[in-house]
């Protein structure tokens, strides 16, 4: 142990970062080597590994000379030597050189250059390649003149096979020419724009694109002063630059300004189609001078034309002189996209003389900056009838006036100038004729040697830029031109098919693949099999340059391609981050299916990730090929001195691992590297260490980086004693920890692996309460020893057991590699990024399991839910707002061996508030922890049952109180889980699912039970029918009140519903059209005949309030009701509360119905005269009858007076 501790003082360097490319040691080319924008390839001649690198060298007499170099590693740098290319070259001065494309195989090296020429007295330019074929040891084998092939074979083949639908051309076998004379290859020099606007700058600097790449800067000039055949770079034609100066002053009517815009749009659109090298800028002037777009915007014709339509008139004054000076200062300026050798044209469109301009027109026109600029002036309207205005117009136009000055009467007449202006500006490029086919094909723009028998040569310029692939078979000495059908080619101009080429080995044969990065604006990859198009892969974003780079990958190196990577370096999210798409080659169908894209978090919005792709061999020695991806502009915005990155992705059996394993930044390699990652290759061993190295190209430099060996360890730990005795109060354990190295290197090379192992041992890992500790009472120990040591002895102590004496003590060993000093001579080894740097060892307790190797518990779980304490039946549902308590009765039985650390885990909704746990007296100790949230909707609670050993039966109850809050889900799940730490034990899980509903109470009443209606008067009346609802609706259940109102009897209307309203906000009432069924048990009117029918109309109200009053206004049309109503007619108005029973429970449902009786009364009309006459006659008859009776009774007889006196006297005596 002491010897190990002494090694701690030797650690002075942090572990080397990255996986597994070493950036501490690099080999670079000296700055004196002219390797501008080198394309790099690794190559072997069978004995030695070489780097092939393109370069350019400045020569005062011949301009930029394209070179091919072979490079090898010296002690501290890369030494390069030029390869002398040979071949036959036309000596005409009209032929100009382009960039160089290279490819290699085990048998050949192929180098192709672009030769551009314009034949005398012809408007047709020719741009195609010449290729030198070399042996692996750099000896000339053959020379291929692609221009001759296209001119002599393809064109004649087209004439003889015009009916060929697939546009495939076969070439006769006489196009390879033996080589004898050295070839000094001239080049225009590969100096792409700083923003790497186009891909493959080292192949052809300026492919014929208008929207996605560089322009060719070496075309012959037109008749504006260029003399063809000039050899000096300063005299080479760099295109035509046209600056339009548009008068936007207030004297121009808005509709005339729109006509001027339309004229400019049509002119530019026409010129763009016939002049690849024409760039436009537009300046509008009024009170202000505004650049609408400059020369740099011409790369995207569609966007430029759209900007014309978006121009807004400035109005106010006419500052023509200031606008022309603005063009000189800010348009024809090299930092604004202007080329030194370009033909410059200024076109001024105005409607009158200068007004309020601070500059003098004579001074502006006569300035030295105006030298060499052709000026055209267009005057519109009658203002130029004035001498002053006409003199200004003549001054603006170059001499002679008849060729440069034009006048029209109004803006509508501008269209008549289009043809004349076009012939003046671009007389050569604008010659009308058929679409270009092979004249500007640029065959050899990209190249690939495939399967020893095929040369694939991209021809991006064929068929007006739609492009194609020239496939040559050296064995049969025939060639085929591959592209889309002629009908599709016409609609795919400037697609640049052939921008990248690749060959793929599928199980059913070879596939030839080519990228067309501007096809359909989003880019496309075309897959050919033999001589026909098999399938296409479509890009997903406009302008992403999808297909500009291709990389087939054979992951398991079995000879069959597994993946195809497709670069889209201009893919934009916030800038031009770039993206690499991954396609899987299906074994059976031989077709590609999308597998997504490589995931990377870029540090720059303009990284151009995917600008370069390379399969770099198995650098981490896991048996699968790895990938390198270049992002040459990453970090440019933050550091202009060193920028660019290379990303390493490792392969595995499933594809490519994500994320990347290493990002190599330019600044990590050298402080002056720029555009680092613009070219990458790998697969060969340059350092003689048995490991694959990578080569990276940057601006002016080639860099070789070595890979580091990946090592693994077989780690063992032996304990003495092998088990912990539970009955001992404490135990002393000795552990022997051993590391044995596993390395892919040969035994003779492993002596260079200078590193130390730093390891950390954690005792009783993951246990909160530790059961073991080292001598210093710590539970973690860190040590270091040299890799030539194999074992280390550790000693620790097991503490007395007080709670868990059954689960094993886990020792976690974490280890890393550290280095004494920075290693330069030998690549420092490193651990596998994808391997596990942690190892776990188990120190078990000795258990008593009845002589069995393991203790097998036999647990049985029973549980049942009850709602509220007074109910004994199972609880089928939770009624929130009604259910008060929920009880879970649990019975757990163990009929097997001891169950160790038996734990109950309850998972339940947060609406349940734990109240208490009640165990039965006979149950073992049960200790529950506090509830804790497990998610936003659930809580959990852990209970230890009989810790540490559970043997018999535990019966207990868990009681919750139910909150009056909404449950998040339709069902309430309560999960009971029983676990222990016995070996091979399984958890017991029981889930209770309760349907959740919500309670409300509502009582339906009516203010009056009977409503009387007198129908005798025959006058329509409005009556209010009211129902009251009182209750509690805490959960705002939608309560529906349905009111059935009788509206007709036997087809006669008795009522008409006018309105229905409630008093609370949010209440919605509507009365339904049509008839409603009668209320149950009340089909007819009271007292009506059986044939009478009563029809009802329904009023439907929905509310969520606790209380509500619903009022129905009913009109009673009583005009004719007396004709069909009886003296009394009773009709019922019924009200009933309904609700969605799936979600809600209504309490007191017996009060959910109410009735109101509507009584119709009719008065009888009496005939007065018959009653009077009858009464009179009756009265007289009654009087006569009474008189007769009285007469019969002697009522009218009279006594004599004498007798009356005697009677009175006798009465007195008696008194």
UniProtKB/TrEMBL annotation:
Establish whether keyword Chaperone is in the entry: no
* TM stretches of this protein: 1168-1195
Q: Superkingdom of the source? A: Eukaryota
Where does the record place its FG-GAP repeats?
532-592, 595-658, 662-722
Q: How does it sit in the membrane?
A: Single-pass type I membrane protein
The protein's name is Integrin alpha-E
Q: What is its main location?
A: membrane
């Amino acid at each position: 142990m002491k010897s190990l501790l002494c090694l701690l003082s030797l650690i002075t360097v942090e572990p080397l970062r990255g996986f597994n490319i070493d950036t501490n040691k690099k080999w670079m080319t000296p700055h004196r080597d002219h390797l501008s924008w080198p394309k790099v390839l690794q190559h072997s001649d069978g004995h030695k590994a070489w780097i092939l690198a393109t370069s350019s060298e400045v020569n005062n007499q011949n301009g930029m000379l394209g070179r091919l170099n072979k490079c090898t590693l010296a002690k501290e740098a890369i030494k390069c030597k030029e390869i002398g290319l040979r071949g036959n070259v036309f000596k005409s001065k009209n032929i100009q050189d382009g960039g160089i494309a290279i490819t290699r195989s085990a048998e050949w090296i192929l180098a192709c250059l672009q030769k551009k020429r314009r034949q005398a007295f012809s408007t047709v330019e020719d741009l195609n390649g010449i290729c030198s074929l070399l042996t692996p040891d750099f000896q000339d084998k053959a020379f291929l003149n692609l221009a001759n092939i296209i001119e002599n074979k393809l064109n004649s083949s087209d004439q003889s096979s015009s009916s060929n639908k697939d546009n495939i051309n076969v070439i006769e076998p006489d196009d390879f020419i033996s080589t004898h004379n050295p070839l000094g290859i001239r080049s225009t020099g590969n100096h792409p724009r700083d923003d790497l606007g186009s891909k493959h700058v080292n192949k052809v600097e300026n492919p014929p694109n208008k929207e996605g790449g560089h322009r060719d800067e070496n075309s012959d000039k037109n008749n504006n002063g260029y003399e063809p055949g000039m050899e000096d770079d300063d005299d080479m034609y760099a295109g035509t630059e046209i600056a339009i100066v548009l008068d936007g002053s207030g004297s121009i009517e808005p509709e005339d300004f729109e006509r001027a815009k339309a004229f400019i749009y049509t002119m530019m659109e026409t010129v763009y189609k016939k002049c690849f090298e024409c760039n436009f800028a537009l300046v509008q002037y009024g009170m202000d001078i505004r650049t609408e777009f400059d020369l740099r915007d011409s790369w995207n014709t569609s966007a430029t034309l759209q900007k014309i339509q978006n121009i807004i008139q400035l109005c106010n004054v006419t500052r023509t002189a200031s606008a022309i000076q603005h063009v000189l200062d800010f348009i024809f300026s090299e930092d604004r996209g202007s080329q030194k050798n370009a033909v410059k044209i200024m076109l001024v469109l105005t409607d009158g003389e200068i007004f309020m301009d601070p500059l003098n027109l004579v001074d502006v026109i006569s300035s030295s900056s105006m030298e060499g600029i052709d000026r055209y002036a267009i005057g519109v309207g009658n203002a130029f009838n004035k001498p002053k205005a006409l003199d200004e117009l003549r001054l603006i136009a170059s001499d002679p006036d008849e060729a440069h000055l034009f006048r029209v009467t109004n803006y509508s007449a501008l269209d008549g100038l289009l043809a004349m202006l076009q012939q003046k500006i671009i007389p050569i490029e604008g010659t009308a004729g058929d679409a270009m086919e092979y004249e500007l094909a640029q065959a050899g723009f990209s190249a690939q040697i495939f399967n020893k028998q095929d040369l694939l040569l991209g021809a991006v310029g064929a068929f007006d830029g739609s492009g194609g692939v020239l496939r040559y078979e050296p064995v049969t000495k025939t060639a085929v031109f591959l592209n889309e059908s002629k009908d599709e080619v016409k609609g795919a101009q400037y697609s640049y098919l052939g921008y990248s080429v690749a060959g793929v080995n599928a199980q059913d044969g070879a596939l030839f693949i080519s990228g067309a990065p501007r096809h359909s604006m989003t880019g496309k990859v075309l897959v050919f099999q033999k001589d026909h198009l098999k399938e296409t892969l479509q890009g997903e974003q406009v302008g992403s340059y999808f297909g500009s780079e291709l990389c087939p990958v054979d992951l398991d190196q079995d000879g069959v391609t597994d993946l195809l990577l497709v670069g889209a370096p201009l893919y934009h999210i916030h800038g031009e981050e770039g993206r690499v798409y991954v396609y899987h080659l299906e074994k059976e169908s031989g077709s590609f299916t999308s597998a997504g894209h490589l995931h990377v978090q870029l540090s720059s919005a303009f990284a151009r990730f995917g600008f370069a792709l390379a399969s770099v061999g198995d650098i981490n020695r896991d048996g699968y090929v790895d990938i390198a991806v270049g992002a040459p502009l990453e970090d440019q915005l933050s550091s202009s001195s060193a920028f660019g990155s290379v990303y390493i992705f490792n392969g595995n059996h499933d594809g490519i691992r994500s994320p990347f394993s290493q990002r190599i930044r330019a600044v990590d390699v050298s402080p002056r590297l720029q555009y680092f990652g613009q070219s990458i290759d790998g697969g060969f061993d340059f350092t003689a260490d048995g490991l694959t190295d990578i080569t990276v190209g940057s601006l002016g430099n080639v860099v070789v980086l070595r890979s580091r060996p990946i090592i693994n360890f077989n780690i063992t730990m032996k304990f003495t004693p092998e088990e912990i005795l539970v009955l001992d109060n404490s135990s002393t354990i000795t552990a022997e920890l051993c590391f044995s190295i596993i390395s892919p290197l040969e035994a003779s090379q492993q002596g260079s692996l200078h590193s130390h192992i730093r390891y950390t041992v954690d005792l009783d890992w993951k246990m909160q309460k530790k059961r073991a500790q080292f001598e210093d009472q710590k539970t973690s120990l860190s040590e270091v020893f040299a890799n030539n040591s194999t074992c280390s002895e550790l000693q620790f102590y097991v503490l007395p057991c007080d709670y868990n004496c059954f689960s094993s003590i886990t020792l976690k060993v974490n280890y890393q590699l550290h280095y004494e000093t920075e290693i330069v001579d030998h690549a420092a080894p490193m651990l596998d990024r994808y391997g596990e740097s942690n190892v776990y060892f188990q120190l078990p307790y000795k258990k008593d399991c009845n002589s069995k190797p393991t203790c097998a518990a036999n647990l049985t779980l029973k549980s049942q839910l009850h709602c509220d304490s007074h109910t004994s039946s199972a609880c089928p549902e939770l009624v929130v707002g009604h259910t008060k308590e929920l009880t879970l009765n649990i019975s757990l039985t163990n009929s097997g061996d001891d169950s160790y650390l038996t734990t109950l885990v309850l998972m339940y909704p947060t609406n349940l508030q734990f109240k208490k746990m009640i165990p039965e007296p006979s149950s073992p100790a049960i200790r529950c922890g506090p509830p804790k949230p497990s998610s936003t909707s659930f809580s959990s609670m852990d209970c230890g049952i009989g810790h540490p050993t559970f043997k018999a039966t535990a019966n207990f109850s868990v009681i919750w109180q139910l909150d009056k809050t909404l449950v998040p889900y339709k069902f309430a799940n309560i999960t009971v889980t029983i676990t222990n730490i016995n070996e091979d034990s399984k958890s017991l899980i029981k889930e209770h699912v309760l349907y959740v509903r919500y309670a409300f109470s509502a009582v339906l009443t009516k203010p009056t039970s009977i409503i009387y209606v007198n129908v005798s008067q025959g006058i329509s009346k409005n009556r209010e029918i009211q129902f009251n609802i009182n209750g509690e609706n805490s959960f705002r259940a939608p309560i529906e009140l349905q009111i059935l109102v009788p509206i007709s009897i036997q087809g006669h209307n008795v009522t008409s519903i006018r309105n229905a309203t409630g008093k609370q906000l949010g209440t919605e009432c509507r009365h339904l059209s049509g008839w409603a069924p009668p209320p149950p048990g009340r089909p007819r009117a009271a007292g009506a005949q059986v044939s009478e029918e009563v029809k009802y109309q329904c009023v439907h109200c929905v509310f969520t309030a606790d209380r509500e009053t619903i009022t129905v206004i009913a009109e009673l049309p009583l005009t004719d009701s007396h004709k069909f109503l009886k003296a009394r007619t009773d009709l019922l108005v019924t009200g009933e509360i309904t609700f969605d029973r799936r979600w809600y429970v209504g309490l007191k449902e017996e009060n959910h119905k109410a009735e109101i009786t509507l009584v119709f009364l009719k008065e009888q009309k009496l005939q007065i005269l018959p009653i009077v006459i009858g009464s009179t006659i009756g009265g007289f008859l009654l009087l006569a009858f009474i008189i007769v009776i009285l007469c019969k009774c002697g009522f009218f007889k009279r006594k004599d007076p004498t007798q009356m006196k005697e009677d009175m006297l006798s009465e007195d005596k008696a008194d």
